Amino acid sequence: MDHNKRYDIALSLSRELERELGDDLVCCCLYGSTARSEDTQWSDIELFAVTKKEVKSRHFLIGMIPTGIHIMEEKRLLHILENPGLDWPFYAGLMANLKVLSGDRLAPERYYEKAMGIPEEKFKTALREKLSELVFESWGRIFSCIKRKKHEDIYCAVIETLLEMRTALCLLNGKHVNRDYFDGIKETFSFEKKPKDYPKLATRLWNCHDVAAIAKDARELIENFISLLKSEEILSN
């Protein structure tokens, strides 16, 4: 399936949803690689719809292409965007990258403005509240794997650590990223507030498969992360 076919399917699905929901649909949008015209023959089709009432999301296959319409009630979306938490970086970034196919074409822009209008202290409060769910458990898992000699699991723990640190840095800086996986982590390299030597250490950890080197860089990264959190008064000294 080529890009034009994938886009036509997305457009058809959005129009079907618009006919079904009528005035209850705020907008139906395309996102991901198809929206960016970067899709390949293996890419999925990702739609995001905002509704005035709760409607169940839909996931199915078209041929062998995973296709999803993630549907969210406007009230819930606004709550996520205006009250930062672990989901805020994803949905803020989503609002910045939606391609409207049907409905109110200005809706994502309004939602994005709300997301980016949050006071800095509110982000810091969210990070303090969610810190126990970020970085430290997955970082500890790296060393548990080493201790138990489960070296085949170390790399998964490294990835979890780096992805969770990305989320933590988004909250600390009140910013989002626009990409997944390592591309999203690289976006946080330009953030003002980040651990010392973060780009270098994160890049080495992502690419490294040597146990001793992972242990050394992981220790240094967590020490620098803790120093950052203390300097920003997220952790007490």
UniProtKB/TrEMBL annotation:
Gene3D superfamilies: Beta Polymerase, domain 2, Nucleotidyltransferases domain 2
InterPro entries tied to this protein: NT_sf
Protein name: Polymerase nucleotidyl transferase domain-containing protein
